[in-house]
Amino acid sequence: MMESTNQKAYAKVTDNGTQAVQEVQNLHSSGYTQEHIFVLAHDSDRTERIASASDASEVGMKEEGAFDTIANLFRSRGDELRAKIQSLGFTEAEADFYEKQLDQGKVLVIAKKDE
């Protein structure tokens, strides 16, 4: 399982929603607050269900900036996910890697540190 810990954010690829919820709970207990934890899955309904079950956030307007959020309306789900991952401080290559994992049905949990 690939984990990335750069200065700005931590990411973990999990196999399913249950694991994602456990990871979010681990992050909560290590001091991250809800607004710093994000859950991404290829299917947006699934992302919402996991986010609400685990008390994590979905990446929204604030993180991406209004321009990026509007731009996302014109992207496919894959592009949108890559943009969200990059907006949380990851490189294009990392975003590509994670998006491919999501394509295979994995769930990505990201914790963003305060700048």
TrEMBL record:
UniProt cross-references to Pfam families, sorted A to Z: YflT
Residues annotated as domain General stress protein 17M-like: 12-105
Name the UniProt record assigns to this protein: YflT
Protein species of origin: Paenibacillus algicola
